[in-house]
From TrEMBL:
Protein origin, superkingdom: Bacteria
Taxonomic placement: Bacteria, Pseudomonadati, Acidobacteriota, Vicinamibacteria, Vicinamibacterales
Descriptive protein name: Spermatogenesis-associated protein 20-like TRX domain-containing protein
Gene Ontology biological process terms from the UniProt entry: carbohydrate metabolic process
Classification via InterPro entries: 6-hairpin_glycosidase_sf, Ssp411, Ssp411-like_TRX, Thioredoxin-like_sf
Domain Spermatogenesis-associated protein 20-like TRX: 4-101
């Protein structure tokens, strides 16, 4: 049976497109998404779609979890995303609704439109870094984030939502608002967002696992380590502020789900339930942070020991002083791109673990990760890029040549500076400069921008507490 001969994102694929004067058909997918699996097995197995791709395009497939640098630049908000690119990597068209019976015809139409220009499409304009105007009024900035995140509340439940599910990042911001300002409304918003987790994650009561990835066809939900870890951290912070019995019980249940569903026998973490023997370093660092937060909230040193054991397995493989922190680990070896988010989340996990140790090794390594990332990736305006640009592997094709300043990584870097150097005015100014550079984008991102709002709280009256959140 004919099938599509997908190529990886590599220089050879784009050179082939140039040689044959064809567009590139880019499929961005994830291994855990039921929707991606259905498209892979049904839509791209249809003879008319296979023929349309073979006749018109150079097909390239990318796992967005393994290459978030590509997913962040080309993703259309949902997985799978299908885009038609020029051989130079510029976007011609794209979409996420791939079950349309006319997909084959639309692929052919896009190829004809490309051919009608004889391949001479204008280059997309380069997008510069976000406005880096200095933002000195901390209260005004936090008010702006409060408005942006408040706008994501579900009018029925009062929960802050992102893509139809309760937002852990928004819940943390709400807890910080309630802590710093003694605001009962924000305490209520945090509680409403936490309560919404039960309806959004149907397996939670039975297994303690946060599984959001359900779909209309009733396929089995798949849980991601990142979601599980973030909700453990939210509940740990909530219990630390208000040790309600129901919240303590839910935190216990979530910790059980984290350990039973995601911890592997070799000490590493599964990136999603049923996943391969692959490690995503950013998600694994989140999991270690979650255990350490739960250890504090529940007064359970055994969880801290387990988190430190996991870090002792993760960090030596993921980090190389010569290159940085790799995004993935496969077969015991560091793989994939070296990205800002992985380094900053690992540094936070090390700094969390430092409180449970008597020597400064973890703190020193966290500081090294921050200093190295700033030296390699920070731009003059203050924002920090996600990666070191490289020509190898089509690393400078299309949007990969444009600077990208990830919200999570920049917010984490700013908070790390506050945690490492709480009394240093110079580092405080540097942290503010980073946040000022990414704040316009974060404010436009709704609940997704909550980490930057949380980082601004590190300069407020509760900053000594929230900087570690």
């Amino acid at each position: 049976m004919p099938s599509i001969d997908w190529l990886p994102w590599h220089t050879a694929a784009f050179l082939e497109a140039q040689r044959r004067r064809r567009p590139v058909l880019l499929l961005l997918e994830t291994a855990w998404s039921p929707a991606c699996g259905r498209v892979r097995d049904e839509v791209f197995a249809r003879p008319d779609v296979v023929a349309a791709v073979a006749d018109t395009s150079v097909p390239v497939r990318v796992d967005a979890d393994l290459r978030p640098d590509i997913g962040d630049r080309y993703g259309l908000g949902h997985w799978p995303s299908l885009l038609v690119l020029t051989p130079e990597g510029h976007v011609l068209t794209g979409g996420t609704h791939l079950h349309d019976d006319a997909l084959a015809a639309r692929i052919r139409d896009a190829a004809r439109a490309f051919a009608s220009h004889d391949g001479a499409w204008p280059s997309a304009p380069r997008v510069g870094p976000p406005d880096s105007t200095r933002l000195d009024d901390n209260a005004a900035v936090l008010d702006a984030f409060a408005m942006a995140i408040h706008a994501t509340r579900d009018p029925r439940t009062g929960a802050c939502m992102h893509d139809g599910t309760p937002s852990a990042g928004a819940a943390l911001f709400a807890l910080a608002q309630a802590t710093a300002r003694g605001d009962a409304d924000w305490a209520s918003t945090a509680a409403d967002t936490i309560d919404a987790l039960h309806d959004a994650a149907p397996c939670l009561d039975d297994t303690g696992v946060v599984a959001f990835a359900t779909d209309a066809d009733g396929l089995a939900p798949v849980a991601r380590l990142e979601d599980q870890a973030e909700w453990v951290r939210v509940m740990a912070r909530a219990v630390g502020l208000e040790p309600l019995p129901a919240w303590s019980t839910q935190l216990d249940r979530l910790v059980h789900g984290l350990r039973s569903a995601f911890r592997r026998d070799d000490g590493q973490w599964r990136p999603w339930t049923g996943g391969p023997r692959l490690v995503l370093v950013d998600a694994s660092a989140r999991a270690c942070r979650a255990l350490l937060a739960a250890a504090d909230a529940l007064d359970r040193p055994d969880l801290a020991r387990e988190a430190i054991e996991a870090l002792e397995v993760l960090a030596p493989v993921a980090y190389s002083r010569g290159s940085g922190v790799s995004h993935t680990i496969a077969d015991g070896h560091a793989r994939g791109p070296v990205l800002l988010d992985d380094a900053m989340l690992l540094a936070h996990a090390l700094l969390d673990a430092d409180a449970w140790r008597t020597d400064p090794v973890y703190r020193d390594l966290a500081e090294e990760l921050v200093r190295t990332s700033l030296a390699r990736l920070q731009e003059p305006a203050g924002a920090i890029r996600d990666r070191v640009a490289a020509l190898a592997g089509a690393g400078q094709v299309g949007r990969l040549a444009d600077a990208h300043h990830p919200i999570t990584g920049n917010a984490a870097a700013a908070r790390l500076l506050r945690r490492l150097f709480p009394d240093d005015a110079g580092h405080a100014a540097e942290a503010r400069r980073i946040l000022a550079a990414v704040t316009p984008e974060a404010l436009a991102a709704g609940a997704f921008g909550a980490p930057v709002g949380l980082a601004w709280h590190a300069f407020g009256p509760a900053g000594a507490v929230t900087a570690a959140w």
